[in-house]
């Protein structure tokens, strides 16, 4: 692996763990957590902001010339997108689950170069599960290679789904109906990044969401692709800053999953 990849992958794993420890402390003291609203069903907490500040500080000290795009922009610095290398970070993906004490949240850290997501790290502090991947170098969970599902039928397991007020209900209801009619079953964890890590590790057959932001999914996209799965071209058009639909699925289910999702990808 090239040095710039290796150094960044190792740093991403280290800072995922250190920021995960900070997040876990906030999670265990949720009754003191300051929460504010960014919109309908769209919350942010001081934990999101402080965890992002820790990640931003650690990464920019090590790689000062890299760009940084974080969900909360908690650093106060303007967004800096650099072709040769930009970090895309969600300090706590699954913020609502975090707030309400549910176990579906994680740290998501991706690094992209020349328009492609090349490193992905997703850390679940509650389960102490560190997923990591780099393009061309495979994907692992706590050092053990990931094994994506070999399923060929949607009835062979569970499908992750995401929904937010960024889209109309029908955008999710229609694919859900097609999934159920095909014998599939859905689960909404509330965290895109966690769900993509579960696709990469074979726990889910696939995941779809009709609109998602880059910081929620880029790390998970690298995990799924490096584990042998298929993901749509999420970064097409202005995916990095405006988001896009996402479809991520085990290799034996690509066409069936595309039919269920119905998204133009
Ligand atoms: C969440 C995503 C989830 C989506 C939620 C929210 P956050 O990210 O992971 O897939 O459905 O609306 O965007 O806001 O918890 O970082």
Give the CA-CA distance, first to last residue: 31 Å
By CATH, the topology of the largest domain is Fructose-1,6-Bisphosphatase, Chain A, domain 1
Mean pLDDT metric: 95
- The succession of helices and strands, N to C, reads HEEHEEHEEEEEEHEHEHEHEH
Low-pLDDT segments: none
Count of individual beta strands: 14
Largest sheet: 7 strands, mixed
> What is the overall number of helices?
8
Tell me the overall shape: globular
Count structural domains.
2
Beta fraction: 25-35%
Looking at the chains present, what oligomeric state does this protein adopt? single chain
Question: Considering DSSP H and I runs of 4 or more, what fraction of the residues is helical?
Answer: 25-40%
The secondary-structure class comes to: alpha+beta
CATH class of the largest domain: Alpha Beta
* Strand arrangement in the largest pleated sheet: 3-4-5-6-7-8-9
Radius of gyration: 17 Å
- Small molecules in complex: L-MYO-inositol-1-phosphate
Q: Output the CATH homologous superfamily of the largest domain.
A: Fructose-1,6-Bisphosphatase, subunit A, domain 1
Description:
The chain is an alpha+beta fold and 265 residues long. It folds into two domains: 2-145, Fructose-1,6-Bisphosphatase, subunit A, domain 1 (Fructose-1,6-Bisphosphatase, Chain A, domain 1, 2-Layer Sandwich), CATH 3.30.540.10; 154-261, D-Maltodextrin-Binding Protein, domain 2 (3-Layer(aba) Sandwich). Helices cover 35% and strands 27% of the residues. The strands form three sheets. A seven-stranded mixed β-sheet has the order 3-4-5-6-7-8-9, with helices on both faces. Strands 11-10-12-14-13 form a five-stranded mixed β-sheet, with helices on both faces. A two-stranded antiparallel ribbon has the order 1-2. Helix 1 packs antiparallel against helix 2 (46-62), helix 4 crosses helix 8 (254-261) and helix 5 packs parallel to helix 6 (214-226). The chain is globular. The two termini are 31 Å apart. The mean pLDDT is 95. It binds L-MYO-inositol-1-phosphate (LIP). The site of L-MYO-inositol-1-phosphate (LIP) has 13 residues, from strand 4 and strand 12.
